[in-house]
Write a structure and sequence with these properties.
mainly alpha
Length: 109
């Protein structure tokens, strides 16, 4: 069964500009995996978003690491866990993510 058939059966409509990103994410491209995680978050699928962002973070995507830190800190899509939030924010900072670097500095980590 192809992707279009799955979408049709599920009753989902994917905007044309997101279609290629979703196919790239499904193929495992780390940046697309991260972008798909954010797309899921924007569309109210928080738990799935955490799963995809975790995949991207484990593949080295700093933006996904920072988002995971934020989600763990707030408990959005995952059980609230400050220790895990700090782990991901520190990893994002080490990977060069500017917002995470500021967060680490502000928290004195």
């Amino acid at each position: 069964m192809d992707f279009d058939s799955v979408l049709r059966i599920a009753g989902l409509t994917v905007p044309a500009e997101d279609y290629a990103m979703i196919l790239d994410a499904d193929a495992g491209a780390p940046a697309a995996v991260s972008e798909f995680g954010l797309w899921l978050l924007e569309n109210g699928r928080d738990t799935l978003a955490v799963e995809w962002l975790t995949r991207a973070a484990q593949a080295g995507v700093a933006d996904a690491m920072q988002w995971l830190g934020k989600l763990y800190a707030s408990g959005q899509g995952v059980e609230r866990d400050e220790a895990q939030a700090i782990v991901w924010i520190k990893k994002a900072a080490e990977a060069g993510h500017l917002i995470a670097q500021r967060q680490v500095a502000e928290l004195g980590l």
